Amino acid sequence: MSENNKHIGVFDSGLGGLTVLKALQKQLPDESFIYFGDTGHLPYGNKSKESVVAYSMKILKFLYEKQIKAAVVACNTASAVALQALQSEYSIPILNVIDPSIHSAINYSKSQTIGVIGTETTILSNTYQTKMKNINPNIKVVAQSCPLFVPIIEEGLMNKKFAHDIVQFYLKTFQDTEVDTLILGCTHYPLFKHIIKKNLHKHIKIIDSAKATAQQASECLENNQLLLSTKKNLKNQYYVSDKPHAFNHLAKVLLNLNNIQINHICL
Amino acid sequence: MSENNKHIGVFDSGLGGLTVLKALQKQLPDESFIYFGDTGHLPYGNKSKESVVAYSMKILKFLYEKQIKAAVVACNTASAVALQALQSEYSIPILNVIDPSIHSAINYSKSQTIGVIGTETTILSNTYQTKMKNINPNIKVVAQSCPLFVPIIEEGLMNKKFAHDIVQFYLKTFQDTEVDTLILGCTHYPLFKHIIKKNLHKHIKIIDSAKATAQQASECLENNQLLLSTKKNLKNQYYVSDKPHAFNHLAKVLLNLNNIQINHICL
Hints:
The structure is a homodimer of 267-residue chains.
Chain A: E1 7-12, H1 18-27, E2 33-37, H2 49-65, E3 68-73, H3 76-89, E4 94-96, H4 98-108, E5 113-118, H5 120-124, H6 127-135, E6 140-145, H7 149-154, H8 161-171, E7 181-185, H9 193-198, E8 205-208, H10 209-223, E9 237-240, H11 247-255, E10 262-264
Parallel strand pairs in A: 1-2, 1-3, 2-9, 3-4, 5-6, 5-7, 7-8, 9-10
Helix pairs in contact in A: 1-10, 2-3, 4-10
């Protein structure tokens, strides 16, 4: 198979990464994708750094053997802790969801004070904080982990009163700060955006990584002359390491996909 | 090593099973235990039956090779879906946390209407419902899954107002029923007992499996002549498949253990 005709690999701890896949498909409609959701280890957000690196390496090995020309780590926790290990092992372009959001946020922020919300492992890794400081040492970062967001989203309870109270509980960190830009540092969180918006000052801009990541992926493929050379001829493939009850429901909500074939594989 | 001098294996998806270990240590102070918390796959409650069976088989193999004379499946989800597979593979006594609670509940209930709360996989497995009906076909069972309880407990947010609202949300199932006995069908839930109690009619008796399981384990070892024949000479051992940030905190809260050595092992 010529390099250009290969797939693009996309992986996440579970199904949140489908928000990124959706943006990628919109940006690159002719390309074919292989999605891997590591639902057997879901959630990554409270696992140790070492474990998330080990899971990510296994997944990329699996995707690489399926013939991919590039990979997108569509999970903030894995992007925060495993990217370097993945890039040092494989020579294909490996994109992540953190860098694109950071660039959007830094471009937008006038107060130079940027908020980030994410899982516990993402926030504790200090990746967002370090990367932003490296680009501009004057940037102030206010970070907050929100470990209950993923379970509430996975349970589809986003519209309950207590979900609103939980959002309020975590977001009070940003009261009385100069934050004018908030990065949703987890691919699940766009599904919670309407409630997050309600609990923030109106002037705060919300940055979600899906669209920015898709744009960066498109530029990267072009620069590496890896864009598909012929019309799309491969079907998308979907793999999960466990098939939870909620899978079909979430695939429908996230991607409007009703009849996709999901392959269950234990790595 | 003589059979009597071997350890007792105890496993759970994570740390909730430490509530059972605590009761076992109180009931059998001379025995030594090997605890395995499958924190790498935590939580089991939203994983598929097939995956929970596969994880449980791997853990029991690991414990068996460490020389155990009996095993306690200290996880309701694994007890609900994996017990038969485990018992058909190994000839040592394998106890679970469901049968002891069921016997306590049936003995107590006067209305013959028993409530059960647990994870999604436990409740969907219908194990509690089927087992109780097999003992007494007149028993009515009212079951409710509470998928947000484990994440809230693991985050230590049990005393927040929204935690109270979430308990109220799930327990309204038991309003206007004849339920006079409620089984806590998850080894995490005893840590939530004070709030669960507040949200139930005062006459409802709460059954938690830890004590009943420890009593049954003691009887089982005696009947099989497996009780320790000499004074305790082996130290307890603790293994986890991932070491989350919260581990030491939870071990301290659950077992008052400050300086235990935790071994990290990937199965």
